[in-house]
């Protein structure tokens, strides 16, 4: 039984193939088109899943879309009527897109799928639709290791729901309650993303990374004016300050007046004020998530919690929930945003629609999230020959020893292996890696390789068995979705003058013995590396540990600002050649930048991408 799940037409379109309940393949369209957050029909992602599953479209039994567009259309109409005559311009703008395509999505999907299969629409398998939050909940619960769990979904908005609680038991998910649009924690956070000058739907990570540089001075202002928060975590926003329900921006003049100025212009200088605002909305978000989760625990009485939706990617909030919340176990879908809806929709058909049995297990079913394309040695070597690259082929043992030495010498390495990760995080197969002990590594990676803001932190990849030696974390974190503090015995002491540093000046001061992955508040976004899901990356870190005594590597996604994570050897080589990366590893092939005769620093390529 083959089920194809699709998410598309809003942002981060993706496709997933589920066979007899097992996730065979999943990928985002952006990785193939090289257009970040590509929302178009995921033609390339679908074709990839067919290739990986070794089946044609004709062998698909069900196709399922991750939400119900007609219900979303109903919400748009009712929202306009509720606010009319406000919002007429934005209503007309939205209606143009809906009347051209989205209102007839079933027909559009069938036409696109028929093109792929070179058949008539009448010959396609049944096309089903799940609800948006149902897809999120299914993506969180069904791949989790739990037989039963509370499922909390937090995002901007689906059809109507912005927050929902579900009870997961066996092969069923039972809805408990929801908070509806326009009252949305995801949209509240995005409003502050917009106000601080970052791009909505991609800049939220930046806002989270900026927060530790500031002080939460605006928390009371937010609670007194923007949001009415109850003790159980439910809330209502004061729409007097927001424009997203009626306009084309997130905030309005009332919001500007409340905070004393208009939104920061993108790419302009960041000030202490933006840092304080970021710290404030981060703290507010954490308080709301913690209250909602505690309510879920009180109402359902379970020890397991599953999370999905874009807000579930806030790993700082997740870390606090793990430390202070009442749930014993937490599992977060690594592709918690809309892309993961493709997996959730397909699994919802298998378990709920077809009522197939399901049992919990000792590990989750996401396979480390390594669900994307892989490339054989022959393909890699042929590409390197075609571009006349200078390279060396090494067997695994020698390769790992060589790369460990290269890293220990302070070099930055592009690391391209196996199947591409599904979701927004690089987890050791499409990664840029370095030595976490190097004080200059963060600035080098940000400014010379990633071409992004200097304040952005980097994550550690740590051997599973060593995680508690470096971090205050007693559980695994395979998907880089939990923030924990670096162990106190690794902290570096500060004198009184250093303690007085504030804002971006904090960045100049190394905080621990692994400074490249230690944020200014002594935290780190931890990825535990497991020999079962990524044996080669695990062996590399073991080799680095044997050489240096350090069982941690710096890990950031293999891309530059404005570009999706690399997918193919060609993508990786192009990124390597356009940045100041020192070495590239493609499978078993090692390339040194100094040996690439055609290399020169060239930043003109940046014009190809929209910088966020």
UniProtKB/TrEMBL annotation:
Name of the protein in question: Carbamoyltransferase
Protein origin, superkingdom: Bacteria
One Pfam family in the UniProt entry: Carbam_trans_N
Keyword field: Transferase
PANTHER family reported in the protein's UniProt record: NODULATION PROTEIN U
Domain Carbamoyltransferase C-terminal as annotated: residue spans: 404-593
Record-annotated Carbamoyltransferase domain positions: 3-347
Residues passing through the membrane, by range: none
GO terms, molecular function: transferase activity
Organism for this UniProt entry: Aphanothece sacrum FPU1
Family: Belongs to the NodU/CmcH family.
């Amino acid at each position: 039984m083959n089920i194809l799940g699709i998410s598309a037409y809003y942002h981060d379109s993706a496709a997933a193939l589920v066979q007899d309940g097992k996730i065979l393949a999943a990928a985002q369209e952006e990785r193939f088109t090289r257009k970040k957050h590509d929302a178009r029909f995921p033609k390339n992602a679908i074709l990839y899943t067919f290739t990986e599953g070794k089946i044609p479209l004709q062998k698909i039994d069900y196709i399922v879309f991750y939400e119900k567009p007609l219900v979303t259309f109903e919400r748009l109409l009712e929202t306009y009527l509720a606010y009319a005559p406000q919002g007429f311009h934005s209503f007309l703008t939205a209606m143009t897109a809906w009347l051209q395509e989205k209102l007839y999505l079933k027909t559009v999907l069938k036409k696109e799928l028929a093109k792929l299969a070179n058949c008539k629409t009448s010959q396609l398998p049944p096309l089903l639709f799940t609800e948006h939050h149902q897809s999120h909940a299914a993506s969180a619960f069904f791949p989790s290791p739990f037989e039963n769990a509370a499922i909390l979904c937090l995002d901007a908005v689906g059809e109507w729901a912005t927050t929902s609680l579900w009870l997961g038991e066996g092969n069923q998910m039972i809805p408990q309650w929801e908070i509806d649009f326009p009252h949305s924690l995801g949209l509240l956070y995005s409003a502050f993303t917009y106000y601080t000058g970052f791009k909505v739907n991609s800049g939220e990570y930046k806002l989270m990374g900026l927060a530790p540089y500031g002080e939460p001075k605006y928390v009371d202002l937010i609670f007194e004016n923007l949001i009415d928060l109850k003790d159980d975590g439910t809330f209502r926003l004061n729409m007097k300050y927001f424009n997203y329900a009626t306009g084309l921006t997130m905030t309005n003049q009332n919001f500007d007046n409340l905070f004393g100025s208009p939104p920061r212009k993108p790419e302009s200088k960041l000030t202490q004020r933006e840092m304080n605002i970021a710290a404030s909305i981060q703290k507010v978000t954490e308080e709301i998530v913690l209250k909602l989760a505690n309510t879920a625990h009180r109402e359902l009485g379970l020890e397991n919690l599953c999370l999905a939706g874009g807000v579930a990617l806030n790993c700082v909030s997740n870390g606090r929930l793990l430390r202070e919340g009442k749930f014993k176990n937490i599992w977060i879908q690594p592709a918690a945003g809309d892309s993961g809806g493709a997996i959730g929709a397909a699994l919802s058909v298998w378990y709920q629609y077809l009522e197939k049995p399901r049992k919990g297990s000792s590990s989750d079913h996401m396979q480390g999230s390594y669900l994307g394309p892989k490339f054989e040695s022959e393909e890699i070597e042929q590409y390197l020959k075609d571009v006349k690259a200078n390279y060396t082929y090494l067997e695994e043992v020698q390769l790992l020893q060589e790369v460990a030495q290269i890293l220990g010498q302070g070099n930055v390495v592009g690391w391209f292996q196996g199947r591409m990760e599904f979701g927004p995080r690089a987890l050791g197969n499409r990664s840029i890696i370095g030595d976490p002990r190097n004080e200059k590594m963060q600035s080098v990676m940000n400014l010379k390789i990633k071409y992004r803001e200097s304040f952005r932190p980097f994550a550690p990849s740590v051997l599973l068995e060593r995680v508690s030696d470096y971090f205050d974390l007693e559980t695994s974190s395979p998907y880089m979705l939990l923030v924990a503090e670096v162990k106190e015995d690794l902290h570096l002491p500060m004198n009184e003058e250093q303690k007085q540093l504030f804002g971006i000046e904090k960045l100049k001061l190394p905080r621990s013995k692994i400074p490249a992955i230690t944020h200014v508040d002594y935290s780190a976004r931890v990825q535990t590396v497991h020999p079962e899901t990524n044996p080669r990356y695990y062996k590399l870190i073991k080799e680095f540990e044997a050489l240096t005594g350090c069982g941690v590597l710096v890990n950031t996604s293999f891309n530059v600002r404005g570009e999706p994570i690399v997918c193919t050897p060609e993508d990786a080589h192009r990124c390597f050649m356009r940045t100041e990366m020192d070495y590239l590893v493609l499978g078993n092939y090692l390339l040194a930048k100094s040996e690439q005769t055609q290399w020169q620093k060239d930043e003109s390529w940046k014009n190809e991408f929209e910088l966020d």
